[in-house]
Amino acid sequence: MALFEVRNLQKAFGQHVVLSALDIDIFAGEVITIIGESGSGKSILLKAMMGLIEVDAGSICFDGEDVTGQAERQWTQTRRRIGMLFQESALFDSLTVFENVAYALREQTTMTEDEIGRRVAETLALVALPGIESMAPSDLSGGMRKRVALARAVAVRPEVVFYDEPAEGLDPINVTRVNRLLLGLQESLNVTSVVVTHNLKAAFAISDRLALIHDGAVAVTGAPEAFLESDDPVVREFIGERMMKVLRAS
Asked: How many angstroms separate the Cα of 67 from the Cα of each of 19, 73, 105?
């Protein structure tokens, strides 16, 4: 049984249909990356799976339970099992790094302040940023902010981590660093990772499976290698012949 089972998911904003009859399964322990053109609904899918937006139709099952249309109180319980790295990091600029990473621990757990302090230090070390607890987000580079946001997402030790454009706005060195961190956390914390990205090189480097959204639905899923060998016109048009050659050579 899949950890997430999404069936016939539909979402429109006014007359603009974003998702239509979308189906996807996400399995425990995998890294699955959702790809597709800008505006195809990748981030909308993530937010729907966290209950941050209401869908128009369809169902979302998490660990065998239908969570579609849950009340906010119920979603709060569900979200304790899910961490999310937002596209813009979304750190609280008025709080220190320590307070940012500790925020969910204070809100969602019964840990003591000593336990929280140890968990924050341990988690910052996991993202290769030990000892920066007293710094302000405004003092950090873009890459460091992204890693602090990642630390905040995994501090509660979730079962699932959603990554919304983890490499957005980063230089190639930091893109590589974030990819390595993602895979390192995947192994050390034994989580399920769901990634949304425009960066195809990163997607092919980190993923067990890819899912391509086209015309509001998942058109193709499979291993990265299968995408590179695919004759499907939707796949080949999206990736492009030039990028196909780059990916095959990497």
From this structure: 18, 12, 23
Q: So what's the pLDDT on residue 73?
A: 86
Answer whether 0.85 is exceeded by the pTM. yes
The 8-class DSSP code of residue 194 comes to E
Residue 240: count of CB within 10 angstroms of its CB = 12
- Cα 116 to Cα 131: distance, rounded to the nearest angstrom: 15
User: Residue 1 domain-assigned?
Assistant: no
Q: What are phi and psi of 192, to 5 degrees?
A: -100, 130
Provide the domain limits for residue 97.
Answer: 88-157
User: In whole angstroms, what is the distance from residue 5 CA to residue 85 CA?
Assistant: 21
Using CA atoms, how far residue 125 sits from 122, 128, 157, in Å, is: 5, 5, 14
150 token code pair: 């990642």
Within a domain: residue 64? no
